[in-house]
Amino acid sequence: MRRKMFIAISAVAAAFVVAAGAVAATTPSSSYQLGGLAIGGSAGTNTTLAGTAVGSTGDRGFWRATVTIAPLTTCSTLGSACAITAGTITLVSNNGSRVDGSVQGGTATLSDQAVSTCSRSQYTVRSTVLATDGTTWQLTATVTKLGLAVGRTCFSLGATVQATLSSGISGPMG
Fold first, then answer.
1. How far apart are CA 56 and CA 105, in angstroms?
2. How far apart, in whole angstroms, are the C-alpha atoms of residue 49 and residue 43?
3. What are phi and psi of 46, to 5 degrees?
4. What pLDDT sits at residue 2?
5. Suppose 112 and one of 6, 18, 83, 122 were both cysteines; which one would form an S-S bond, judging by CB atoms 3.0 to 4.6 Å apart?
6. What residue segments make up the domains of the chain, in order of their start?
7. What is the pLDDT of residues 11-29, one digit of tens each?
8. Nearest C-alpha neighbor of 28 from the set 59, 52, 7
9. How far apart are CA 165 and CA 131, in angstroms?
10. What does pTM read for this prediction?
């Protein structure tokens, strides 16, 4: 009888360990380092950014964001800011976790610019993201736009993104 009881208790304990491991595997890291590129769009429209992510617990993944930003001509002097008016972000990790959220506004501030305004412009981006689970995330990024001047025409070559996405603030549902 004791042996059967021991086996039953051991089986229940093993089930809890497996269940706890499954829950831990689907919990996102508390922060992610993001890197990527702008892959389309222009100011005043939905601009898509995408790349790779490394979580604070060592998980790795991919992210994609679509943001709507005011025309960059409204923030063409150093220190001036353009409004981020909307957007979405999705991050999928190799540990099975996922962050889906909506951009709750923010700013893109012109923080550095080459002598030729066409060749390089750097923006500091700050935004709040409300995840579908109610968690609030903070997005802080450096977006570097690159261009090439040919005569009087400026050709956009794209943009790079280096960012941090951090959680820890409970939202209305968290």
1. 25
2. 13
3. -75, 120
4. 47
5. 122
6. 2-170
7. 433 433 333 344 444 789 9
8. 59
9. 12
10. 0.76
Angle at the Cα of 8 (from 7 to 9), degrees rounded to 5? 95
Residue type, 38: A
User: Mean of the pLDDT values across residues 78-82?
Assistant: 89
Rg of the chain, C-alpha, whole Å: 22
Those residues whose C-beta lies under 8 Å from the C-beta of residue 137, and which sit 6 or more positions away, are 99, 101, 128, 129, 130, 131, 165, 166, 167, 169
The residue with tokens 């990024």 is 141
- Kindly write down the DSSP assignment for every residue of the chain, as one continuous string: -HHHHHHHHHHHHHHHHHHHHHHHHTSPPSEEEEEEEEEE--TTSEEEEEEEEEETTS-EEEEEEEEEE--GGGG-STT-EEEEEEEEEEEEETTS-EEEEEEEEEEEEEEEE-SSTTTEEEEEEEEEEEETTSEEEEEEEEEEEEEEEETTEEEEEEEEEEEEEEEEEE-TT-
Digit-coded pLDDT (tens) for 113-149: 876 667 788 999 999 999 999 999 999 999 998 888 8
